[in-house]
Amino acid sequence: MKARVHVMLKDGVLDPQGEAVRHALGSLGFEGVNGVRQGKVIELDLADGTTEDQIAAMCEKLLANTVIESYRIETL
């Protein structure tokens, strides 16, 4: 079983890396980019029978800093 976890900073949390990308895009001539939020994708190769609750526990304990990040689980 495979799962993907999408982790993003919560709304209202400053994203300096996203801002750096937005600035760089403008410097390269890409106009009209008003904002960039950067996140991460984590792919998990899991044993059959792993539940979404178990994946959520992994996110809560290690994969996401839930104080400033949100996550979404996608099972494949």
From TrEMBL:
Gene Ontology cellular component annotations, sorted alphabetically: cytoplasm
Protein EC: 6.3.5.3
Listed transmembrane segments: none
Protein location: Cytoplasm
Gene3D superfamilies referenced in this protein's UniProt entry, alphabetically: Phosphoribosylformylglycinamidine synthase subunit PurS (3.30.1280.10)
Record-linked NCBIfam families: phosphoribosylformylglycinamidine synthase subunit PurS (TIGR00302), PRK05974.1 (NF004630)
Family: Belongs to the PurS family.
Full protein name: Phosphoribosylformylglycinamidine synthase subunit PurS
Organism: Thetidibacter halocola
